[in-house]
Amino acid sequence: MSRVLTDALTKLVAANGKLASTQLTPAQRDALANLARLTGCVSQSPQGRGSVYQVIDWPRVELELKSLRPISTENLPNNLPKRSTNLALYRDSKSQAHGHEVYYVLMKAIGSSVCWQHDDGRCLDVTEMTRTAGVGSLMIAASDSWSSQQPLWLLENQELFDNLLWLPDDATGTVVYYAGNIHGVLLDWLAHKLRCSELILFPDYDGVGLANYVRLYERVGQRVQFWLMPNWQQKLQQMGNRELWIKNRPLFDSSLEKLRCLGVDGDIWQLVDCMRSAAMALEQETVFF
Question: What are phi and psi of 250, to 5 degrees?
């Protein structure tokens, strides 16, 4: 409520103390009406088909706004981080959308000579980082120029990232761990330009995994491949998880509708049919069997 009232008072003050209700959201109108009842520093009166809000007691309004907004917008330093800006304007770092502009990618090399190149000449030797530290990290922003001439694998769960023995014998490139849901910055980054020779998604076979595939497909189209592990049909029957299927069924169904609208084809539909027939999901850790 404090953020709503802050924004409403800011609009009212910017309008020299008189503002039509049509210039406010319903929540902001309610916040000003409540302030008027409690303090009398603002009035609400009929005007046409709506109403108008007007400042009655300027010192009290300025005091109220000061208590809600420690630092005014015009007094904020330049290039202040978003969450610090939120703190100054609303006393809460999370009061507005506060997504970070960069994301830190955890990656491992598959094989030798795995490098990522930047247009400015920099080269990130992922093979050496993996050999030395066990894992590499790359700070990405949506519009940067990092790219590789090799495939990029996206993995949902850490166990597969920890142990890469499940990979096909001919696999090469980079493996990235995304922990459940693909981060928005990573999505933007993959969509901005061609980052790799192949983009391969290996998620759990459930509603969440399908939803991540949809999110990727919406951004990069046919550049993304949904990887099907060997003998997945047999594993679905032997080690499928009905509880997980039920839990994520709504997300599974909504993702299917999006896949149809996107015109997606390929082997994924065989997987979808088998999952629906068995009423089970399949966790990607079964790839080790």
Answer: -60, -40
Please say whether the beta carbons of 51 and 45 come within 8 A. Answer: yes
Structural domains present in the chain: 2-68 (1.10.10), 102-288 (3.40.1360)
Per-residue pLDDT of the chain (289 residues; tens, 9 = 90+): 577 888 888 889 889 989 998 999 999 999 888 888 888 899 988 888 888 999 999 988 888 887 787 776 666 666 666 666 566 555 655 545 445 689 999 999 999 999 999 999 999 999 999 999 999 999 999 999 999 999 999 999 999 999 999 999 999 999 999 988 999 999 999 999 999 999 999 999 999 999 999 999 999 999 999 999 999 999 999 999 999 999 999 999 999 999 999 999 999 999 999 999 999 999 999 999 9
